[in-house]
DNA sequence: CGGTAAGCGAGACGGTACGTCTTGTCTTATT
DNA sequence: AATAAGACAAGACGTACCGTCTCGCTTACCG
């Protein structure tokens, strides 16, 4: 049984234009920083009209969101090694790798939009951030299940971890490199080990040494 | 012989205008959010000309910085009870109290500016953030001295703690209330307790300056 | 094969906006005088953005020039009755009729701009004034051909006649009415008659009585 | 009986400052044209405070008026040789000499102010222009008395002559040199000769006040 | 000769217009 | 129907100039 996709009438959306727009967005962010990411600059660099931009995305923020979905952290796997420490390390190292300088600048541009506009912040939180928070939540959830963390600690940890990421990006505190990933992962993992040793819920789970 | 402070020539700067401007900035942020904080709106609300605004502050961000210094977190004491847990609790609760909704909105407006402009972010980081980071650094430094944390952990903790604060503010993740303060304080303190029990490496190691 | 006029791509310039701008310019000048002719007032009255104004005219003076071309003296015919006296009368009476109060105020606004800016004055002289000077020059040129005036006198007369017009407008010396037109026309014509009687160049041309 | 000039109390007005201001006004006009004549520029160039400027002159136009009175045409004698032609030549040649480039630029700046502001134009007309018009009126009045001109022609001639002067200055039509003076003088004088020959009405008719 | 009142330099101030910039919408002809 | 081109409305930005105000200092008179 062949699934017949109903073809829309008229000229189909140009995939070329879509890619050109997202590429241009990334390139502009990379080369000129958040301020360089202007709708007319994106359009002109992509060889596309502003009309096309606004036909498919309602605002600059939406373009940024899709550009991030394309180039950013979307491919970060959620590891499950049985150890919070190694899970976190792997996850945050992958996160740091995904946050290369161009992507960092996209994040920064997105943060600028969200900080300035509460409605937009809601959207960003409930779509873009929510997915990443859910991933990290699942990872930490396994530690909760093993009794290494309480649910409340896991929730707080999500804020601490992603908070430190955005904080560093927005204010230029420092790079999102392996050192950052390991520092944060170890810190949270030590805590978990401590909790486990203190006999939370599931003492049968042996704590593993961090590194 | 008493050193006579030489009075500057010409009409002295109007303290009234200065206060009116900072008040107007706070009021606009509180009432209309970051987008309401416009230079012309500040000027008109303060009964001041734009020229006066630009005479004393080169950008909106500088006005925000001074308004924050005036109304914001500048009076948060750094407690020293001998216990990291209670020090942190007290410090973060005071921080949460200082971050009332109007102040939160000022912070948000400032974040929007800093995210959009890297040069400005440098200024914000090196003046506004640095003071708060230093306060928290001193607090954590005592725990380092007591062997409850390594210097590296203390540095990471600063990012985690303030990161979570800004993250919640910028993206509207949740309020900066006592629950937040206690959750974060407990989390970091548990870690310290765990580290101390584990006999962490070298307490004599001097704490690295927290950026 | 018919030459097809290539239509420019993109949205065509709005004729509505153009007219609204020129109308608003005239109305503001008429109602509020030269000081009322402000770029933002024109824009707001015309229901147009300032950007549209500056897209098509680089300065207020250019808008005034086009408004004058639209409403001003452009339709003044250059009569040729064979008599300098009646030609001049007809021409200056038509000029006076064209210089109704709203137009006078546009002229005044234009003079203010030109007086303040030498570069602009050059443009005004070489475009707007030049056309009128040429018209009057042709009219007087016929008198020169008839031997009623020397070429030098004709040139001086152009300055005298238009000079008196602008002088009266700018400093509010008096109105540009029929009395003014006749007074100036008769004066120049008497001179021509006198020159002719004195036997300048072409004595065969009989002087005609001034009406 | 000795007229005792009552000396005002307090520090007397600085004549140095007054001269410095008028000099600076002239110099700025000469060097930078009408646009360079700014109140703060005058003050700073004269080494004087704006306070002092506005203490003695209510507006830029008043400063210009006094600067012109100082450097401009104030010393032009009204000749009385018994011949209109030579009187006019002498008067206009002296006028042209007085209108050197720096003075021309002052005139231009004054015209810009007057054109933009009707109230100011009234003042300029009734003070500055009136004196010159009266001088020229007296000169022409003698021709009227001799029956060379009618009173109406004399009045029109004043507009034509001074009109041409301002017209040339404002729009940069051409210089106010001897050629201009002679051209205008000869033109008006020819007319007078013609009228006299034609036996124009009679001298008992009193010359109308020339506005 | 010392008090005092006005003049003065400095420069901050409120007001207002300018010309620029960016966002998001709209209107053409073309594909 | 989607697109490139580009004009458009809205509105904030930062600058410039005007004329006013507020200091502390200076100058010359007058008692």
Structure description:
The structure is a homotetramer of 211-residue chains. By secondary structure, chain A is mainly α. Chain A has one domain (15-197): Tetracycline Repressor, domain 2 (Orthogonal Bundle), CATH 1.10.357. Chain A has helices at 15-32, 39-46, 50-56, 60-71, 84-98, 101-116, 118-145, 151-171, 178-197. In chain A, helix 1 (15-32) crosses helix 4 and helix 5 (84-98) runs antiparallel to helix 9. Chain A starts with 14 loop residues before the first helix and ends in a 14-residue tail after the last helix. Chains in contact: A-B, C-D. The interface between A and B is large, with 47 and 48 residues.
- Which structural category fits the helices and strands of chain A? mainly alpha
Task: Identify the biggest protein-protein contact and residues per side.
Answer: A-B, 47 and 48 residues
Query: Oligomeric form of this entry?
Result: homotetramer
Query: How many strand segments of chain A?
Result: 0
Assign the CATH architecture of chain A.
Answer: Orthogonal Bundle
Q: Give the number of helices of chain A.
A: 9
* Overall structural domain count of chain A: 1
Mean pLDDT of chain A: 88
Distance between the termini of chain A: 54 Å
Unreliable spans of chain A:
1-6, 199-211
Overall CATH class of chain A: Mainly Alpha
| Name of the CATH homologous superfamily of chain A | Tetracycline Repressor, domain 2
